[in-house]
């Protein structure tokens, strides 16, 4: 592990994210302790993604090309996401993406560590490798769904005064970055599947016209908001 010190630090930060997320969700502590765990989960996720950006693009350069390169990185998207939720009222669903990503990457690194130290044939290593290979795509879909379904929660939080009215605009920027991701097309797939499902649901003859019109109006609005360069 000493030859992969950066990856070891990333592994530790991801373990912190997993533990703090579970501590917040499970009823095992006081309310203040759980809120603290919530903030620490996002702080650890932010540190993880900041380090991943440095690992992939190197040091900071004050150029437009560097900024464009950083914005293409998935780690940048989730750095924005983590910082955003650190400054708002707790939203349990918001923990799901950082928890699942941390869990997947920590599991993969633990398998790599087992292989590097001669324990790759153990039951633990084989089982973890099997589970991650089998369920990674499904979990990426779950992550993308949770990111989309957070939007109506934000709308409700605006009316209750729990978040700033500018918050959804920042989150919309995050969603557009995820939609245009070069390495993970799960967000695009989720939007397509939601559109198809909604169209099928309202296309039946028994669906009231007002619901059908509202559904197609929503679909048209989302299509206009989707990035054109994806």
From TrEMBL:
Write out the GO biological process terms: endoplasmic reticulum tubular network organization; membrane organization
Q: GO CC: one term?
A: endoplasmic reticulum
Q: Where are the transmembrane segments?
A: 9-26, 78-104
Q: Which InterPro entries match?
A: PER33/POM33_regulator, TMEM33/Pom33
Per the record, the domain of life is Eukaryota
Classification via Pfam families: TMEM33_Pom33
Q: Where in the cell is it found?
A: Membrane
Q: What is its main location?
A: membrane
Q: How does it sit in the membrane?
A: Multi-pass membrane protein
Q: Which UniProt keywords apply?
A: Membrane, Transmembrane, Transmembrane helix
Q: Which family does it belong to?
A: Belongs to the PER33/POM33 family.
The protein depicted here goes by the name Transmembrane protein 33
């Amino acid at each position: 592990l000493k030859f992969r010190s950066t990856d070891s630090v990333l592994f530790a930060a991801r373990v912190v994210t997993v533990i703090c997320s579970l501590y917040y969700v499970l009823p095992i502590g006081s309310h203040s302790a759980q809120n603290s765990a919530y903030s620490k989960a996002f702080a650890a996720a932010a540190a993880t993604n900041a380090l991943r950006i440095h690992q992939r693009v190197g040091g900071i350069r004050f150029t437009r090309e560097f900024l464009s390169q950083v914005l293409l990185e998935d780690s940048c998207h989730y750095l924005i996401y983590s910082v955003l939720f650190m400054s708002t009222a707790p939203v349990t669903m918001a923990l799901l993406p950082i928890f699942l990503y941390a869990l997947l990457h920590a599991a993969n690194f633990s398998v790599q560590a087992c292989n590097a130290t001669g324990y790759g044939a153990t039951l633990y290593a084989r089982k973890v490798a099997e589970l991650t290979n089998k369920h990674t795509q499904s979990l990426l879909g779950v992550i993308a769904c949770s990111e989309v379904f957070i939007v109506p929660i934000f709308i409700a939080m605006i009316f209750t005064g729990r978040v700033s009215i500018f918050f959804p605009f920042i989150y919309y920027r995050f969603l557009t970055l995820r939609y245009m991701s070069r390495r993970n097309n799960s967000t695009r797939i989720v939007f397509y599947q939601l559109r198809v499902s909604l169209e099928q649901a309202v296309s039946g003859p028994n669906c009231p016209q007002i619901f059908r019109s509202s559904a197609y109006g929503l679909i048209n609005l989302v299509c206009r908001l989707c990035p054109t360069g994806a």
